[in-house]
Design a protein that fits this description.
The chain is mainly beta. It is built from one helix and twelve strands, in the order αββββββββββββ. A hairpin with a 4-residue loop joins strand 2 (45-48) and strand 3.
Length: 161
């Protein structure tokens, strides 16, 4: 009973966090931007119960160009662990996203190297002012007969130069 209550409370806290407002720093008054550096929280595992048992999660980083007319260029995608150590760089060259196109990067459930404080830093730019992309992480895990899933929204660190 206590384990179920602990899991329920954890899920409630994660749900509330998932729907918190995004910290948008637009470069012009219409909310448009020509580039940003974005921090995206991620969790390779979370802790369940009084014994803080790790619950392993698959992470999907999703980058969505939501501008219906213009492409954007994703110039950097980096994955960091809880202490800030770089674990992986995903791009050798920029990835161009056409209008309404999306890309994703997946960290498998068995890879717990990121820890509960894992994160991504994503940089993008374009030569026009566009709707900034939606950048989020989606975590999902299943153990025994239980499943959990939640999202984390990216937060702008700074406009890119």
């Amino acid at each position: 009973m206590i384990k179920k209550l602990s899991i329920t409370l954890t899920l409630l806290i994660l749900a509330i966090y998932s729907f918190s407002p995004i910290n948008v720093q637009a470069e012009d008054k219409d909310g448009l931007s020509n580039g940003q550096m974005v921090y995206v929280p991620a969790y390779s595992h979370i802790y369940i119960g009084d014994r803080e048992s790790p619950y392993l999660l698959t992470i999907t980083l999703s980058i969505r160009n939501i501008d219906p007319k213009h492409e954007i260029k994703v110039t950097s995608v980096k994955y960091y662990e809880s202490q800030g150590k770089l674990l992986k760089e995903y791009l050798n060259e920029p990835a161009v996203l056409k209008p309404l196109e999306s890309i994703r990067y997946v960290i498998p459930e068995r890879d717990k190297s990121g820890g509960s404080g894992a994160n991504f830093i994503v940089e993008w730019n374009t030569d026009k002012y566009v709707n900034p992309p939606v950048i989020e992480s989606i975590m999902i895990g299943t153990q025994s007969q239980q499943g959990i899933s939640f999202t984390s929204q990216g937060r702008v660190i700074k406009p890119t130069d």
